[in-house]
């Protein structure tokens, strides 16, 4: 199976966690696109979704799903999203698609985070994938200097987030204590969100492998 087929397989597998009649949290990325396709095909009664990006909102609406602003919703049962890397403790690097801040917000209010990923995303140590950090535009240079002091090599992405901010992709870190790093990096003034999802990691990992979809639970 190629990578796209693995993404489709985990997208379909995630349907098992969608409860009919319940508001659903929807993440962002090519794997989530496969999930949205599967959701549409399934015909499951989803009264409304909360989306983590303009991209996913547009796709959901094009399929006829209702998308609510998070301020209209008190809680979400299940949030389905992808990851760039996930470690054995269910901590993740996210933000390859630049939607990390909204993803972290929707994940925070969701009872269960179901991560869908192909097997290339499962790692022992986070950091081979450069860590995305969303930064207020005027603070790009200042935050970069702080990151360099911590041994990271920040590269400014040619991209503006849905929130009007910039992304620094940080190379060179091997992250074993993800929760501590998440906290430390979030404290740099000018950082909006760090793409480490450790404090609120995944609860379930659906991993697409050539032997089929494997389920891991925290
Ligand atoms: O965090 C994300 C977007 O901000 C995505 O979940 C992550 O980049 C994985 O994307 P893909 O499914 O396309 O590999």
From TrEMBL:
<dbReference type="InterPro" id="IPR020672">
    <property type="entry name" value="Ribose5P_isomerase_typA_subgr"/>
</dbReference>
<feature type="binding site">
    <location>
        <begin position="81"/>
        <end position="84"/>
    </location>
    <ligand>
        <name>substrate</name>
    </ligand>
</feature>
<protein>
    <recommendedName>
        <fullName>Ribose-5-phosphate isomerase A</fullName>
        <ecNumber>5.3.1.6</ecNumber>
    </recommendedName>
</protein>
<feature type="binding site">
    <location>
        <begin position="94"/>
        <end position="97"/>
    </location>
    <ligand>
        <name>substrate</name>
    </ligand>
</feature>
<feature type="active site" description="Proton acceptor">
    <location>
        <position position="103"/>
    </location>
</feature>
<comment type="function">
    <text>Catalyzes the reversible conversion of ribose-5-phosphate to ribulose 5-phosphate.</text>
</comment>
<comment type="subunit">
    <text>Homodimer.</text>
</comment>
<feature type="binding site">
    <location>
        <position position="121"/>
    </location>
    <ligand>
        <name>substrate</name>
    </ligand>
</feature>
<comment type="similarity">
    <text>Belongs to the ribose 5-phosphate isomerase family.</text>
</comment>
<keyword id="KW-0413">Isomerase</keyword>
<dbReference type="Pfam" id="PF06026">
    <property type="entry name" value="Rib_5-P_isom_A"/>
</dbReference>
<dbReference type="InterPro" id="IPR037171">
    <property type="entry name" value="NagB/RpiA_transferase-like"/>
</dbReference>
<feature type="binding site">
    <location>
        <begin position="28"/>
        <end position="31"/>
    </location>
    <ligand>
        <name>substrate</name>
    </ligand>
</feature>
<comment type="pathway">
    <text>Carbohydrate degradation; pentose phosphate pathway; D-ribose 5-phosphate from D-ribulose 5-phosphate (non-oxidative stage): step 1/1.</text>
</comment>
<dbReference type="InterPro" id="IPR004788">
    <property type="entry name" value="Ribose5P_isomerase_type_A"/>
</dbReference>
<dbReference type="GO" id="GO:0004751">
    <property type="term" value="F:ribose-5-phosphate isomerase activity"/>
</dbReference>
